[in-house]
Write a structure and sequence with these properties.
Chain A: Pfam families: ABC_tran. Chain A: It comes from Vreelandella neptunia. Chain A: InterPro entries: AAA+_ATPase, ABC_SmlMolc_Importer, ABC_transporter-like_ATP-bd, ABC_transporter-like_CS, P-loop_NTPase. The complex is a heterodimer. Chain A contains 8 helices and 10 strands. Chain A folds into 2 domains: 176 residues, Rossmann fold; 64 residues, no CATH class. Chain A is of the alpha/beta class. Chain A has a 6-stranded mixed sheet, sandwiched between helices. In chain A, strands 2-1-4-5 form a 4-stranded antiparallel sheet, covered by helices on one side. In chain B, 33% of the residues are buried. By secondary structure, chain B is mainly alpha-helical. The radius of gyration of chain B is 24 Å and the shape is globular. Helix content of chain B is 76%, strand content 0%. The mean pLDDT of chain B is 90. Chain B has 10 helices and no strands. The chains are: A alpha/beta, B mainly alpha. The interface between A and B is medium-sized, with 37 and 26 residues.
Chain lengths: 264, 275
C-alpha cells in the first residue's frame, strides 16, 4: 500500500486545463522534488495535496482514501513567505501547535500543560538551531531564521507528509546550503515524506530521492489553455551517484523539452 | 548639495520647526486681538489671553452657586464618559463583527452588504429618530456615537482580516486549528492592534457626533457649554474650551497609541518615521 497515489488526476479551471493525466504512487519516506517552468501547475499540485484546491477528475488518495478537502495536521507545510505568525515569538510560534491540540476552547495552555508544550517546543527549536532567539518576534529574524522557525513549527505535531513550496527560494546561497543540511537531517531522523517545489535543479538533485519534471506534452499554439502539464519525467535519484553524472545521463537521453531549456 | 527630499532636520531642530507654525498663529491672533481691543476695549470677539485664562480659571475652580458643582469638571467628565462608553461599545462591536465578517465567508455574505449600506447613512440625519427612540438622555448621545463610528470600524477590520495572507490561515489549519481557534489565535491577535489604530482615526468623528448631540440636547458637557455661551458671544470661554477639547482628544489619541506600542511591539516593527 502506497502512502499517496494518483490515477489520471486532472485539474482545470473552466476550460483552462492546468494539470492532466497525473499517475504516480509515493511510498512513505520518499523525498520528491518538483521542478518545472513557472506557471506549469506545481503549486496547484501542492495545493491539491494540501487540500485547498479540489481535484477536477481522477483520483488522489492518501492511504487509499480520497485526500481530505481541507488542510489538516497530517500534512505540514512551509511556504516561501508568510509561513510564521508575526504576532507570536519564536517560542509562541512553535508551541501554538501543541496548544491548539490540548486546549480546544482557548487554543492556549496554562500551567503544567504549558510547561510540557514548552519542553517539547524547545527540542524542536533546538533542532533547527534557534535556541538563542526564543523571545524574538519574526520581524527581528533574518529570512533564513524565519524559514527555520517555519520548519520547526511545521514539524511540531509530527506530520507524516511535509510540503515545501520553494522554501529556500528567497535565501542567500550560503544560508541555502545550511538549510539543505537541516532539511536532510530532519527528513532522515523523522522519516518524513517530503514534497518540495524548487526552481533550483541542483537543489532538486541534491535533496530528493525522486525528481518530477512538470511540463506540457501537448501544446496547441491556437489554444494554449487546452492542454495541461503532467509529470514528464519521474526519475529516481540515487544518493550515491553524484548529480552531475545524472545530469549528463539526462542529456544523453535526449530530453529536449521546454522544461530542460528553461532549467538546465 | 543634497537633494531637498534627503534633507532631514535634527531632533532638536524638528521640535523647533514643529513649534514655529504655532508661534506664528499665536502672534497673528495677538496682533489682531490687540488691534480690535485698541479700538474698543469692550470687544468680545478676540479676547486677550489673560481674559481667557481668568475665565477658564474661574470655570475650573469656582463652584456653581446653585448646584455646588464646578462647571469645567462636570462638563469634562460628562463628555468623556459619553465618548469613552460610545467608542468602547463601537470598538467591541467592530472587533467582533469585523473578525466574523473577515474570517467566515458564510457570515460575510450575509452581513457585509448590510454594513456597507449602514455605513452610508449619515448619522446626523437619524439623530431625531434617536431622540424619539431613546429620549434626550445619555442613551441617545451614546447611540449616535456608536452608529456613527461602528460601521467604519467594522469595514476597516473586515478589510484588514481579508488582507491577511492565506498562508497563515492554511498554516494554522495544518497545525490542527479549528475554525474557532483560527479566529481566536490568528485573526483576533492580529486585528486588535489594527482596531486600536482604526479607533484612533475614528476618535475625531466620535468627538464630532458627541459635540453635535450635546449642542442639541444636554444639561452638561463640553459641547453643551460652548453652544450655551455662544448666546453671550463669550469667546473668552469658547476658545479655551476648544483648546481643552483638543487637548483631551490629543491625550486620548496618544493613550491609544501608547497602549498599542506597548502591547503589540511586533505590529509597529514596519513603521518608519512617524513623527
Amino acid at each position: 500500500m502506497s502512502l499517496l497515489a494518483a490515477k489520471r488526476l486532472e485539474k482545470h479551471y473552466g476550460n483552462h486545463v492546468v494539470l492532466e493525466n497525473l499517475n504516480f504512487s509515493v511510498e512513505p519516506g520518499e523525498f520528491v522534488t518538483l521542478v518545472g517552468a513557472s506557471g506549469c501547475g506545481k503549486t496547484t499540485f501542492l495545493k491539491m495535496l494540501l487540500g485547498t484546491e479540489a481535484t477536477s477528475r481522477g483520483s488522489l488518495t492518501l492511504d487509499d482514501k480520497p485526500i481530505p478537502n481541507e488542510p489538516g495536521p497530517d500534512r505540514g507545510v512551509v511556504f516561501q513567505k508568510y509561513s510564521v505568525f508575526p504576532h507570536l515569538t519564536v517560542l509562541g510560534n512553535v508551541i501554538i501547535a501543541d496548544e491548539l491540540h490540548s486546549s480546544k476552547l482557548l487554543g492556549k495552555s496554562f500551567g503544567a500543560a504549558k510547561r510540557q508544550a514548552i519542553e517539547k517546543a524547545l527540542a524542536r527549536i533546538d533542532e533547527v538551531g534557534l535556541s538563542h532567539a526564543l523571545k524574538k518576534y519574526p520581524h527581528e529574524l533574518s529570512g533564513g531564521m524565519q524559514q527555520r522557525l517555519a520548519i520547526a513549527q511545521a514539524l511540531m505535531m509530527r506530520p507524516r507528509i511535509l510540503l515545501l513550496d520553494e522554501p529556500f527560494g528567497a535565501l542567500d546561497p550560503g544560508i541555502r546550503q545550511d538549510m539543505h543540511v537541516l532539511i536532510n537531517r530532519l527528513w532522515q531522523e523523522q522519516q518524513l515524506t517530503i514534497f518540495m517545489i524548487t526552481h533550483d535543479l541542483k537543489e532538486a538533485f541534491e535533496l530528493g530521492t525522486r525528481l518530477w519534471v512538470f511540463d506540457k506534452t501537448r501544446h496547441d499554439p491556437q489554444a494554449p489553455e487546452a492542454y495541461g502539464a503532467t509529470i514528464t519525467y519521474d526519475l529516481p535519484i540515487s544518493r550515491d551517484r553524484p548529480s552531475n553524472e545524472l545530469k549528463e545521463a539526462l542529456h544523453q537521453g535526449g530530453l529536449q523539452t521546454h522544461t530542460q531549456e528553461t532549467l538546465l | 548639495m543634497k537633494r531637498f527630499i534627503n534633507l532631514a532636520p535634527s531632533r532638536g531642530g524638528r521640535w523647533l520647526l514643529g513649534l514655529l507654525p504655532f508661534l506664528l498663529l499665536a502672534m497673528l491672533y495677538m496682533s489682531l486681538s490687540n488691534a480690535r481691543l485698541a479700538e474698543n476695549p469692550n470687544d468680545r470677539l478676540l479676547p486677550t489671553p489673560s481674559t481667557m485664562a481668568s475665565s477658564f480659571y474661574h470655570l475650573a475652580t469656582a463652584e456653581n452657586v446653585r448646584t455646588g458643582q464646578i462647571v469645567l469638571w462636570t462638563d469634562t467628565f460628562a463628555s468623556l464618559e459619553r465618548i469613552v462608553i460610545g467608542v468602547g461599545i463601537s470598538a467591541l462591536i467592530g472587533l467582533v463583527v469585523g473578525i466574523l465578517n473577515g474570517g467566515i465567508p458564510l457570515i460575510r455574505a450575509k452581513l457585509s452588504p448590510l454594513v456597507t449600506v449602514a455605513s452610508l447613512i449619515p448619522p446626523m440625519a437619524i439623530l431625531p429618530i434617536l431622540f424619539i427612540a431613546f429620549g434626550t438622555g445619555e442613551a441617545a448621545k451614546i447611540a449616535l456615537i456608536v452608529i456613527g463610528v461602528t460601521p467604519f470600524l467594522i469595514r476597516d477590520l473586515q478589510g484588514h482580516a481579508l488582507r491577511l495572507p492565506d498562508e497563515q490561515l492554511i498554516k494554522a489549519q495544518t497545525l490542527g486549528a479549528s475554525s474557532w481557534q483560527v479566529l481566536l489565535r490568528v485573526l483576533l491577535p492580529q486585528l486588535t492592534p489594527r482596531l486600536l489604530n482604526a479607533t484612533r482615526l475614528a476618535l475625531g468623528t466620535a468627538w464630532l457626533f458627541l459635540i453635535a448631540a450635546e449642542a442639541i440636547a444636554a444639561q452638561e458637557g463640553l459641547g453643551y457649554r460652548i453652544f450655551l455661551v455662544r448666546r453671550y458671544l463669550s469667546m473668552d470661554v469658547i476658545l479655551p474650551y476648544v483648546a481643552w477639547i483638543t487637548l483631551l482628544a490629543f491625550l486620548l489619541d496618544q493613550l491609544l497609541a501608547w497602549i498599542s506600542r506597548l502591547a503589540f511591539p511586533w505590529y509597529h516593527s514596519g513603521e518608519g518615521d512617524n513623527s
